[in-house]
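Training component of the fellowship. As part of building independent skills, the fellow (R.M.) carried out the full modelling exercise for a liganded target. The chosen ligand was 6-O-phosphono-beta-D-glucopyranose. The inputs are recorded below so that the supervisory panel can assess the work.
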Amino acid sequence: MVIFGGSGDLTRRKLIPALYKLYTGQRLPLTFNILGVGRTRYEDDSYRLHLKKNIKEFINENELNSNSVERFLATIHYISIDQSQEKEYVLLREKIEQLGNGTENYLFYLATPPSLYEDIPLFLKSAGLDKGRIVVEKPFGYDLKSAVRMNKIFKGVFSEEQIFRIDHFLGKETVQNILALRFANGIFEPLWNRNYIDRVEITAVENFGIENRGGFYDSTGALRDMVQNHLIQLLALVAMEPPVAFNEKEFRDEVVKVYRSLKPMNNQEIAKSVIRGQYVGVDKTIKGYREENSVAAGSHTETFLAMKIFLANWRWEGVPFYIRTGKQMPTKVSEIIIHFKSTPHRLFSSREECPEQNQLIIRIQPNEGCVLKFDMKVPGGGFDVKQVPMEFTFDKLGGVPMDDAYSRLLEDCISGESTLFTRSDAVEESWRFFDPVLKYWSDNTNFPLYGYPAGTWGPLESETIIDGGKKWTNPCKNLTNTDLYCEL
Ligand code: BG6
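Fellow's submitted model of the complex:
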């Protein structure tokens, strides 16, 4: 496995810890070597030392064993080259050939800044290294045009079966569980449509800023970083038709069908249904976005995005999907809420003040689980009816392993299983939907970018996109395993 961007953040935080877990679980092939590629000058030994510190930081203590750490590190090597220089790939080939055992079973992983994504496959080809599989991180493209160009470049070097466009949300246990919830149970499917569902909310927010990623984030923003890939992928899992089989063709065909049915938005709809925001500092203790390192002083990059999306198909016509993401919000949580429609007639007056009806909450992280909310009579005189939760938490199935998404997906890449990776047509269809939003923003530079104080739920204006005076459901700040859902 050759990791471009071997000295970068993603490698030390996610890839190496995930590979370590696979190694200790004996889930890697026996003759597996890892080669980090980067500009930073390391020798094999100094690179191993650098990774060793990180393994200790990003792996739970109970999973660490000093013998296995040493044995794992011995499989790791490093070469320092300028990845943007074609001629340096000859050195890379030599190093790979030294390490290889005669096979050309390569797995290339692009964990570099996206600006290198177009060069690397071409340079691999010219060095005769266009063998095996290639994994590429998001964002795949910057807009529709660049995504189409990138697809063309990648497919000029590797076949679609060799290309793994990774979206780590799909590696999450709870995200995969949406499929089990929907398609392994008969009771939800009859209700899963516009006749019974009022609206769907998808929230994925974080209680920290952009950390040290100013350079990347300022030219990316929330739409490209989270919405065009992770959130739309979640929407696809909620909205898709049952695939004929769970395999790479049938599953991904259904995802693409959802993207094709995203209702294109005209400029008026964009102006009304998309709210963007940027966090501002609080009391000099939390920096505002524009004060972060490597962020332009007058930056217009959004760190918050809320939007209303409709699908044009039989199942979902008229049902709004509200999606929202943001940095520096009150908590880190990802969840999906399916709001079912009210009963046609309200028999019990005690429920009149509460506008909410049955909800199914799918908590992706943390305290992973599901909650179904329904009404019951409060014991005693009178006829008070109250909403109660019925909950399942993953603890009951042994808990969700921490940060396991990358291990799962890397294992899939190694075995050539591409169901959970984004196909070229899906990337393009998703960009086709979001492109007009990006264009509208760049053509209308005075389109509002609302400031929101760090630690709040984003600009108040985001409430205006919800129909019928309803509100966003803000998940609890202090979550505990038993407090999966809090009252509105
Ligand atoms: C990444 C984004 O893809 O996902 C980050 O680039 C974001 O900005 C992260 O923080 C969130 O992932 P997770 O798994 O921590 O929810």
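The panel noted the following from the submitted structure. Residues 2-165 form a domain with the Rossmann fold fold (CATH 3.40.50.720). The radius of gyration is 24 Å.
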